[in-house]
Amino acid sequence: MKHIVLIKLKDRTLENQQAVAAILKKMTTKTIPYADSFFVGEDFLDSERSYDVLLEVELQRQDLERYANDPFHVTVKKEFAPYMDHSVTIDVE
Description:
Helix content is 28%, strand content 31%. It is an alpha+beta fold. It has a single domain, classed as Alpha-Beta Plaits, CATH 3.30.70.100. The longest helix has 11 residues.
């Protein structure tokens, strides 16, 4: 399955976008080994509708709650939280 998160920044600058992307890129299959893959993308269109940063995690459906409570994941969320206005998620198979 894919766990997809779209993040809207409080202060929508390129510097902040790159900072959040760098924080998210700390999550890898080495830091969270039960995840199959991670992808982090940065929006280039910069429209009012756009979200600024995307996180896509591929993992098994039964591992979604484990991922949500993973200590490394929780630490990463706390690190980028000051930049974030809000986020939306979708989980699909």
